[in-house]
Amino acid sequence: MHPLTLPLITTLIIIIIIIIIIIIIIIIIIIIINENNNIFIKVYLEAALLYDAVYLYALALEKALQEGVDPEDGWGISQRLFNRTFTGIMCTHAS
Q1: Residue 12: helix, strand or coil by DSSP?
Q2: Which H helix or E strand runs over 24?
Q3: pLDDT-derived band at 30, boundaries 50, 70, 90
Q4: What angle do CA 40, 21, 31 make, to 5 degrees?
Q5: How far apart are CA 15 and CA 21, in angstroms?
Q6: How far apart, in Å, are the Cα atoms of 24 and each of 1, 50, 76, 84?
Q7: Residues 6+ apart with CB under 8 A from 49
Q8: Which of 23, 59, 77, 95 has its CA 20 to 30 A from that of 48?
Q9: Whose CA is closest to 47, among 19, 11, 84?
Q10: Comparison of pLDDT for 34 and 62, the residue scoring more
Q11: pLDDT mean over 24-38
């Protein structure tokens, strides 16, 4: 394994975690309390799709790393985005 691979992997994981935290903060900010003090969450479609895209990329990156693919190989990672089903924030998606 190349000596720079571990810091790169760590950096990618940190970036993915930061993006997920930002999305969660956005969703929390959108929590609305109606007149009956019932709490419901209004999720904007764009925020949900962004979350699902980041989640799908994280799944593909994890699979690629488990299979020994170089984390800088965009083609190798992108090939693991297809032919999978996952449960996203709004529903089940197939890619």
Answers
A1: helix
A2: helix 5-29
A3: low
A4: 15
A5: 10
A6: 34, 11, 29, 24
A7: none
A8: 77
A9: 19
A10: 62
A11: 60
- Give the Cα separation of 86 and 81 in Å (integer): 11
Structure tokens at 91: 């529903």
Q: Are 50 and 23 in contact (CB under 8 A)?
A: yes
* Whole-angstrom distance, CA of residue 86 vs CA of residue 1: 30
Q: In degrees, to the nearest 5, what angle opens at C-alpha 82 toward C-alphas 89 and 49?
A: 25
- Does the CA dihedral 3-16-57-65 come out positive or negative? positive
Q: Which of 55, 51, 13 is nearest to 30 (CA)?
A: 51
- C-alpha–C-alpha distance, residues 52 and 40, integer Å: 20
Q: Would you list the domain boundaries of the chain?
A: 5-94
Tens digits of residue pLDDT in 37-65: 555 556 677 777 888 888 888 888 889 88
